[in-house]
Specification:
alpha/beta; 5-stranded antiparallel β-sheet; 26 helices
Length: 626
């Protein structure tokens, strides 16, 4: 399904005009088909049916370019109501489409599909729209949709960010970018689990290390614990001696903020920022207890009859135990020793989110938290709050591979691999700060959240077209290089063209890529709706391959005049400057779409890159001449 775009069509929607004020290619094709079907109906070609009764037909991108720009099953869908053979309806439709200023040609295929080819000005119009929009192409013009709280990462502040939390961070951040691109107002929130037994155990571990004592067997180990202990012993010896809750809060503060210059303990905030992830809100679990939000939420549940005591503990009574809610167990909210559970904090936390006025609450969680979703919804329902606002996005595991083997431990962190050290290793290999972040984001986002990620660190370090992120970034750098060389040769890069000037862009591959560019708004919308950033990765990879293929094959008809042409006397008189201008505007449009996609993915867009050893010779020669 990656190589075709299908949309169901309702005739009442065929004339819908995008917010930009110009009808997009797909909408114009829909409208042309609906109008042609209407004329077929008026001529009796649909029997007693009329065009408005024919619904749920689709327009698709064919898998093979020779089948046209689009294909539709409209005739096959119409046959039931029209009580006529689909090919007869298709033949009549083709005759009517011959009058269209949108459809250049139409032909019947198979049992009644209709393959469509479009007039070139449609592609030119869309390219003009892309040039006008720049990097904003495909984005909603204003934030008029939902107000969304997006909570992600929320890893315990008892260790550095590991690669699993890194996937959470990258996935959540990119979902946020997609939601913003489609007109939503997104608040990115990190829930700090700074209350309870794990924080006490972490503080005990750090204090033991600071005092030169053995860390408890079930405590926290690793270089970062020793470094934090050493730092706090030197900076706050009195708190180390006193211990207690204040020392625990101090430990959390430095886990979040880090120690300046430390490799072992850069800090959660800094680690996340290094991979392009930043938060608007850092919400403390401890504050819910300090301000009485947890007991207040439980008191509300008790008043509504949703709490019960059993063996000295207090349980939340699940509203429905018929299995439909996804949770059929009562859940402990206060243990027999008087301590609150994490679930008690979570109830108060999500009630607080609703009170802050969000239309939607999205949380990104590991796949092992699937049962958590029903618990939160049940709690919101019991409190009389809109449980349908809550949504959880689940993601699978990450495996770091080196020499084909899974890396299970870290020099810095002990028994897990940190996101920081993976990024640092790739940065060092690439001799570029940010290369590691780019690789991590691209590799992680190239798989559905429902699939495990095998991150091959050896491949990610290669300056080779086998490396998927390098391949895409090299494509952007190549586009940038063409535009630079054009300016060096004295060509002005057009920011807009007249219809007459665009008419020089006629090569089938160029128009096919223009059609691919026009898909971006739909790709962004679908990726945001489904919370699936990998759709943007797939789209960008397809675009990169198509342009690479075009560029490789166009040595005989280069975009810019090669040296062999420019060395001839009066070469300017024989060179088709109009075609070059149209192609340069087309290149700029492709570059804009590239930039928009890379920005959505949080991946850098380098304008210059070293030529990889496995670059295609024909394409390389073309680039040199360009």
């Amino acid at each position: 399904m990656r190589d075709k775009v299908a949309r169901k069509v309702c005739p009442a929607q065929t004339a819908a005009v995008p917010k930009e004020g110009r009808m997009a290619i797909l909408e114009r094709v829909r409208k042309a088909l609906h109008e042609a079907l209407g004329r077929v109906a008026l001529a009796g070609g649909l029997g007693e049916a009329n065009a408005n009764e024919i619904v749920e037909w689709t327009i698709e991108r064919p898998k093979r370019a020779e089948h046209g720009d689009f294909a539709t099953n409209i005739a096959m869908v119409a046959t039931k109501r029209a009580k006529k053979p689909p090919r007869a309806i298709a033949d009549a439709l083709v005759l009517e489409l011959a009058k269209s200023d949108v459809i250049r040609s139409a032909e019947v295929a198979g049992p009644g599909f209709v393959n469509l080819r479009l007039h070139a000005p449609l592609f030119h119009d869309e390219l003009e729209t892309i040039l006008a929009a720049g990097k904003a192409y495909g984005r909603a013009p204003a934030a008029t949709a939902e107000r969304i709280n997006l909570e992600f990462v929320s890893a315990n502040p008892t260790g550095p960010i590991n690669v699993a939390s890194g996937r959470n961070a990258i996935f959540g951040d990119t979902v946020g970018r997609l939601l913003e691109a489609t007109g939503n107002r997104v608040t990115r929130e990190y829930y700090i689990n700074d209350f309870g037994n794990q924080i006490r155990l972490f503080a005990t571990s750090v204090r033991a290390a600071a005092n030169g004592e053995a860390i408890p067997e079930d405590g926290y180990h690793g270089e970062y614990v020793v470094e934090l202990a050493r730092f706090l012993r030197a900076k706050n010896p009195e708190l180390v001696e006193a211990g207690g809750d204040d020392f625990g809060r101090l430990c959390v503060t430095y886990m979040l903020g880090g120690i300046e210059g430390s490799k072992a303990l850069p800090g959660i905030r800094r680690s996340l920022a290094s991979i392009g992830v930043n938060f608007d809100v850092w919400f403390s679990e401890e504050s819910l207890h300090r301000w009485g939000a947890v007991p207040a939420a439980l008191a509300e549940l008790e008043n509504k009859g949703y709490l019960t005591s059993r063996d000295g503990a207090i349980f939340f009574v699940t509203p429905s135990k018929d299995g439909k809610s996804g949770d059929d167990k009562d859940r402990v909210v206060k243990k027999s020793d008087g301590n609150y559970t994490y679930f008690a904090s979570d109830i108060a936390y999500h009630a607080d989110k609703v009170a802050r006025g969000y239309d939607r609450l999205i949380t990104v969680l590991g796949a092992d938290h699937h049962g958590y979703v029903a618990r939160v919804r049940n709690a919101l329902e019991a409190l009389g709050l809109p449980s349908e606002r809550y949504e959880a996005l689940l993601y699978q595991l990450v495996y770091i591979l080196r020499d084909g083997q899974i890396v299970k431990s870290s020099k810095r962190a002990g028994n897990f691999v940190t996101i920081e050290e993976v990024a640092d290793e790739i940065d060092e290999a690439a001799h570029r700060k940010g290369a590691g972040s780019d690789a991590l984001r691209f590799f992680f986002l190239s798989r559905s959240a429902n699939s495990n990620v095998d991150f091959d660190i050896d491949l990610a370090k290669k300056e080779s077209l086998d490396n998927p992120v390098f391949y895409v970034q090299y494509g952007f750098a190549r586009l940038s290089s063409i535009l630079r060389k054009a300016e060096a040769q004295g060509f002005a890069i057009p920011k807009t063209l007249s219809p007459e000037a665009w008419s020089k862009l006629v090569h089938e591959d160029e128009l096919a890529i223009a059609l691919r560019l026009s898909e971006l708004p739909d790709v962004i919308s679908a990726a945001a709706d489904a919370r699936e950033p990998h759709r943007v990765v797939f789209y960008l990879q397809d675009l990169a391959r198509e342009f690479q293929s075009y560029f490789t094959r166009m040595k005989v008809d280069p975009i810019l005049p090669p040296d062999s042409v420019r060395s001839a006397e009066n070469w300017e008189k024989n060179w088709d400057h109009g075609k070059t201008n149209a192609r340069l505007a087309w290149i700029l449009a492709i570059r804009n779409v590239y930039a928009a996609c890379l920005a959505l993915l949080g991946v850098g867009a380098p304008e210059e890159m070293r030529r990889p050893s496995d670059a295609d010779e024909a394409a390389d020669e073309q680039e040199k001449s360009a």
